[in-house]
Amino acid sequence: MRIVLVGPPGAGKGTQAVRLAEKLGIPHISTGDLFRANISRQTELGKLAKSYMDAGNLVPDEVTIAMAKDRMEQPDAENGFLLDGFPRNVSQAEALDELLRDEHMTLDAVLDLEVPEEEVVKRIAGRRICRNDSSHVFHVTYSKPEQEGVCDVCGGELYQRDDDSEDTVRKRLEVYHTQTEPIIDYYKAQELVVTISSLGPVDEITQRALEALKREKAGK
Length: 220
Prior knowledge:
Blueprint: E1 2-6, H1 13-24, E2 28-30, H2 31-40, H3 44-54, H4 61-72, E3 81-84, H5 90-102, E4 109-114, H6 117-125, E5 127-130, E6 137-139, E7 158-159, H7 166-180, H8 182-188, E8 193-197, H9 202-218
Parallel strand pairs: 1-3, 1-4, 2-3, 4-8
Antiparallel strand pairs: 5-6, 5-7
Helix pairs in contact: 1-9, 2-3, 2-4, 4-5, 6-7
């Protein structure tokens, strides 16, 4: 299957992308991984992207699209892929359609992870990270440390990242609503959107997504 995964910050896209790609036997293609891989390998696209990033500018759509095209042409993506973080706006969605047409391919589904805005704020603003090891993550509601402000694993101080503050989260949501959310309507016009709730245990959400994708594929 060829799938685009969308949803607001805090919807659990990263977690679900990895799980769904594994269950479906297709590669998980994220823009973050694409940038890191191209920059670390010092490809021409990586050098170009880094020049924009070093200057504090956004990487142009055409560079992101070229990286995605290169990745989708790899042998492991022959039977499908799951795109996470791309496309981010309607112009990228149009470019993706054109790219797929050129390769005589089509998308099978656009999976929209739906979560109430206040839940997004609660999920992200409640995160606390260990200063000693950022892989040690806690939450003031969902995964409390035994001692407030102290990492259960190593005893390090827990803190809230600046980009996890409520004000920053709400700004990120505004960006999502203005830039990325319009692609849902774009794909609805193509009857590709499958919307599921991203509330509940991780395993339940994965199963919900798999069942929804199965129904979508069977209906075509």
